[in-house]
Amino acid sequence: MAIILPPLPYADDALAPTISATTLQTHHGKHHKAYVDKTNAAIEGTDLAAASLEDIIAAAEAKGDKGLFNNSAQSWNHAFYWNSMAPSA
């Protein structure tokens, strides 16, 4: 299963003025997406292609694959980051 870029759990402008819509779009749509894309490229055609993101991270760490570890862990970290924030009530 390919790793997917999860949608943001709120609108792009929902965290403004603390985080602008432009900053959110750039960080999610470019930086986070790049980690997801690089993870998918690294696992394509391997036994990890059907693995969960958490299993990919663990396997990369166990194998000492620093590139895959960085990209997969950053994919997880960014998803956690987005879900750790919420618009003001």
Folded structure, characterized:
The chain is mainly alpha-helical and 89 residues long. α2 runs antiparallel to α3. It has a domain at 31-42 and 50-82. It has helices at 21-43, 53-63, 66-83. The chain is 58% helix and 0% strand. It is built from three helices and no strands.
What does the secondary structure layout of this molecule look like, with pairings?
Blueprint: H1 21-43, H2 53-63, H3 66-83
What labels describe this entry?
89 residues
SSE pattern, N- to C-terminal: HHH
**What fraction of residues sit in β-strands?**
under 5%
- Backbone structural class: mainly alpha
Report mean pLDDT, rounded to a whole number: 96
For the largest beta-sheet, the strand count, sense and barrel status come to: none
Compute the CA-based radius of gyration: 14 Å
Q: What is the count of β-strands?
A: 0
Instruction: Estimate percent helicity.
Output: 55-70%
Distance between the termini: 36 Å
The number of helical elements comes to: 3
| Uncertain spans | none
Shape: elongated
Offer a concise description of the structure.
The chain is an all-alpha fold and 89 residues long. It has helices at residues 21-43, 53-63, 66-83.
